[in-house]
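Example with several molecule types.
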Amino acid sequence: MSTGAFIGHVAQAVGVNVQTVRYYERLGLLPRPERTAAGYRIYAPETTARLRFIKRAQALGFSLEEIREILRVEYEGRSPCECVQRLLEEKLERVEREMAALRRFRRELRKTLARSQKLPRLPHSASAICPIIEIQPSPHKKKRKGGEKR
Amino acid sequence: MSTGAFIGHVAQAVGVNVQTVRYYERLGLLPRPERTAAGYRIYAPETTARLRFIKRAQALGFSLEEIREILRVEYEGRSPCECVQRLLEEKLERVEREMAALRRFRRELRKTLARSQKLPRLPHSASAICPIIEIQPSPHKKKRKGGEKR
DNA sequence: CTAAACCCTATAGCCAACTACAGAGTCAAG
DNA sequence: CTTGACTCTGTAGTTGGCTATAGGGTTTAG
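Resulting structure tokens for the full complex:
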């Protein structure tokens, strides 16, 4: 109906950066929009909805990769619901695992902290770098947060 | 006592890559070792202990930045215990916050999943991309996992 | 007519913690 | 004397999700 909006307009409407919109397009999350004679992108009103969809899916913990998968299914005309449901289940499992790891980690932290509080405050030991960490029993499974592959 | 080992030896002993050892040296986590006439690094036996210390601290959730801080304190001759203890407390707080976020996220996931299971399996709706995600009430606080700054 | 406020592409940078590669030198065994 | 396993430096690539910058073109208000 309406004439469509430029990129800054939709970006502001959804609360993202213009570069982000272009980035999503490059990743295949948004279809290539029509252009003016000067090459400006013209967005249909659905685009804001699609962007909000992406943001909501992100907020639910989906990666852009997963979101693209959902949208690809959608573009093929099938309902993405089964696909989304499967992803949701996987995600839930991952969250459970992560929480378990976090609980282990917290227990470890608390033990270490408790030990450190009743450790003698020695000025400096030549052999050990730090008794608190030194005594650590077995390095339990690493947390894999920042990004680490081995 | 013994003559010291080359980089591949210590790397294998600790189970890390040789590049990683050099990387740690570049970051200032390891002191510059002596060299042979040919320029090969010669590591004192303490180096493996130091590397294991780094790995253990990482397993406890410290970043390399934090570990360097600990080691810097240690190099200055002070005991790093107070410093470590402070870092441990901070870390514990962060873990608590993260677990709370994860619990919220899990609740959200479960709600969404439950709703999706009693949603009509419509073939394809033109207006909505996916009813499961579409209906999402309010995009709760994002998880900040991969890295995101806004 | 000009200045601001848009838009375009292409490229590079950010974060952490590596990992890989190129091109060269070294060292011991056979 | 050659082969292969090691080492060196320096640089660039990886992951994910942006963000920034350079260097230009367009549009609109005054």
